[in-house]
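Below is how a single chain appears once it has passed through the pipeline. First comes the sequence as given, then the structure the pipeline wrote out for it. We keep one example in the README because the format questions we get most often are answered faster by looking than by reading.
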Amino acid sequence: MITKKTKMIMKRKKKEVYAFGQHICMSPHKARRVIDQIRGRSYEETMMILELMPYRACYPILKLVYSAASNASHNMGFNERDLVISKAEVNQGTTVKKLKPRAQGRSYPIKRPTCSITIVLKDTAVNENEKEFQRYQYTILILDLNKPGVLITKEKYTDMTCYDMYNNGGLWDKK
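Resulting structure:
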């Protein structure tokens, strides 16, 4: 039996909006503490959480989420009620190094960490009934070994598997 596997990916309308914040003077560890609380939540719930959390990292993240939502509503025409934070990540940026003068002519190095934050908002209203599927179409060819080149049967079947964690019920509250 000879198997031929062809991979087909169903095309979708673009439904994600990005916002990047780079060189934010803050430790990535402290920013991740806030980002972990908002990942996977809706836009309105995220804005409430960020306004009420008592951390300094909330303000730049609030500005980024607001900017991403503004991009979504203005550029793509999405409704802000249907937006969900599908991806939020914090990466370490460059370290700003300065020298502080100390007693007896010495100097002391000061290292200021920076971070870069990426926020991705996903619109859940676009194709809300249709999930993100990766579709595999298999074609099975059954050949006769006694007569080379003679095809006995040809069968096709399609296997559809969902890989979207947020629409598939894999979403849970973090911490």
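Residues 13-125 form a domain with the Ribosomal Protein L22; Chain A fold (CATH 3.90.470.10).

See the next section for the split statistics.
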